[in-house]
Specification:
Length: 275
């Protein structure tokens, strides 16, 4: 699901208008389910819970906008693996520091393999050739910033659903609603772009509006009862799927190197999870 909606988002490569449209549509689509959870589970929402809902909305606004910018300057088979590979790595490091999770030598080896793979994926030594790799360097930066945001919101959201016991579906729905509200003034200022995306990319908007929340609700549900250092790496098998989509469907080139590096990232993530 995650690789699929990112493939669609890359094809559109929209900005604020696109993010506002799929966030607003997500809030509408999942509203009946959020109501059902509210009346059947009767969650205890207090001031701390509201703070975490607000925090995840702000983190996800930044994440989606940075990711979209990354797709505007870089390929799917480059930006996606870097973002998704560095995110779990940082999540695991922070989980070690904050939650006192202890990795084994295998996990540390997996971390090293991810770092090496990201370097290979981004072009290896070409990264240091200023004139040859300016675009790649910019895509790399956006990918790493996205990875940092992934690590941050993963730990933030883990606490929200596992400790504060906010139901995952309600938590994600509230985040979508707040994201839509926060972006409304900007969407209003760019209303011509909003209307253009609505007329040209309605199918893509609908796909992202359904798949993006659904994929993350599944992750949040898993985070309720599993360690971050298992779930964060395990969800990133999507790296291979996205790399294949970029290479085969978007014809982004450099297929052998990018697919090989993506495979190494997945192997590193498996070692990270097992360790």
């Amino acid at each position: 699901m995650h690789a699929s909606w990112n493939y669609v988002a890359k094809k559109v490569s929209g900005g604020v208008a696109f993010v506002w449209l799929f966030s607003s549509l997500s809030a509408v689509i999942y509203f009946p389910l959020a109501l059902y959870v509210w009346f059947t589970q009767h969650p205890q929402i207090n001031l701390v819970s509201l703070l975490f809902i607000l925090g995840t909305a702000l983190l996800h606004i930044t994440y989606f906008l940075v990711l979209q910018r990354g797709y505007q300057v870089g390929d799917l088979s480059l930006v996606y693996p870097i973002a998704r590979g560095s995110g779990p790595l940082l999540s695991t490091v922070l989980a070690i520091i904050l939650f006192r999770e202890r990795p084994s030598p295998l996990a540390l080896a997996g971390s090293g393999l991810i770092i090496l793979s990201v370097f290979i994926l981004a072009g290896g030594q070409k990264l240091f050739h200023r004139n040859k790799a300016a675009k790649t360097q910019k895509a790399l930066i956006y990918g790493l910033v996205t990875g940092f945001l992934i690590a941050t919101y993963t730990l933030w959201d883990k606490y929200a659903v596992a400790v504060l016991l906010i139901p995952p579906l309600m938590f994600d729905w509230a985040s979508n609603l707040l994201r839509s509200l926060f972006l409304t003034p900007s969407a209003y200022r760019h209303w011509t772009t909003v209307k253009w995306h609505w007329s040209k990319h309605l199918k893509e908007i609908l796909i992202v509006a359904i798949l993006s929340p659904l994929a993350y609700i599944l992750v949040l549900t898993a985070l309720r009862f599993s360690p971050v250092s298992y779930i964060a790496p395990a969800r990133e098998v999507s790296i291979l799927i996205a790399a294949l989509m970029g290479a085969k469907l978007l014809k982004e080139g450099d297929e052998k190197r990018r697919l090989s590096a993506a495979l190494l990232i997945v192997l590193g993530l498996i070692a990270l999870a097992l360790g």
